[in-house]
Amino acid sequence: MQPHQINPLIEPQFDAVTDYILNHLGSNVPLVENIGHYIVESGGKRLRPLLVLLAANACGYQGAQHIPLAAVIEFIHTATLLHDDVVDNSELRRGNATANAKWGNAPSVLVGDFLYSRSFQIMVEIGEMGIMEVISNATTVIAEGEVLQLLNQRNPDTTEESYMNVILGKTAMLFEAATECGAILAKANPTHREALRLYGRHLGIAFQLVDDVMDYLSSSEEMGKNVGDDLAEGKATLPLIHAMREGSESERSLVREAIRRGGLDDLEPILQIVHRTGAIDYTKAQARAQVDSAIAAIDTLPYNSFRDTLHTIANMAVERTR
């Protein structure tokens, strides 16, 4: 079951967001439309726009502006995917060829820029300064997170704290912006707005932790990208950081050298080390703790089916396989 199918009250709104997104990919340049439609229609769950809808509804919102707001969040997310795949030289996403693999790096970057620009056009139409402030701040932090990740690439001395700062920026900030902006649109009181902001932050961190676990667990068919992609790019994610901390001297040396070098020459022994040192269970436990914090944060919200759905989605985040 897709996340938006958990609550029948949200499905018509979710469908309206999909229609809105597709209707706002128009451009006088055909290549912009082609790439935009390709990446938007490539099978993502659209979890971030769903969070906008649920947050607004959980706070009693009765208007229609949460539809374009959800589209804004999805456009920003899609733009970051286009840029990320270029930076990482990725060839597979969600089981399909990446846009840069099909059309090249330059068109992918420029269409990503187009989607960023379109999202800000829509925000101006929404006309809520508080939302513009949150999202403009979030996009700045996301860019900083991406740069920090680039600086950490092929650095085996990356600390757990530095790694958490990366995922807070590059992943969790957009989750946080999605839920907080839903609350702003609903004119939620400060307590409920803060609760939803924290929910989004903790959920985003958990989501990325699980992503990083799957890089050492799943087949490419299950998760829609190549197994070992993070290792190939020299990314010291939490499973590797824990493996280096708990492994023997020889295991630590092997992992450190693999991160420095990048590539997949040592993938099999690295997988064995990750499993032997309990790195998978450790990272999953950290994700579970973040989910528990996310759920606790919104217990201050009034009880309704939308709050329940937010609970369910948080639990699903640590149980997913792709």
Automatic annotation (TrEMBL):
Uppermost EC category: transferase
GO BP terms: isoprenoid biosynthetic process
Necessary cofactors: Mg(2+)
PROSITE patterns reported in the protein's UniProt record: POLYPRENYL_SYNTHASE_1, POLYPRENYL_SYNTHASE_2
Keywords for this protein: Magnesium, Metal-binding, Transferase
EC numbers for this chain: 2.5.1.90
UniProt catalytic activity: 5 isopentenyl diphosphate + (2E,6E)-farnesyl diphosphate = all-trans-octaprenyl diphosphate + 5 diphosphate
GO molecular function: all-trans-octaprenyl-diphosphate synthase activity; metal ion binding
Pfam families: polyprenyl_synt (PF00348)
Role noted for this protein: Supplies octaprenyl diphosphate, the precursor for the side chain of the isoprenoid quinones ubiquinone and menaquinone.
Similarity comment text for this entry: Belongs to the FPP/GGPP synthase family.
Protein name: Octaprenyl diphosphate synthase
UniProt organism field: Marinobacterium lacunae
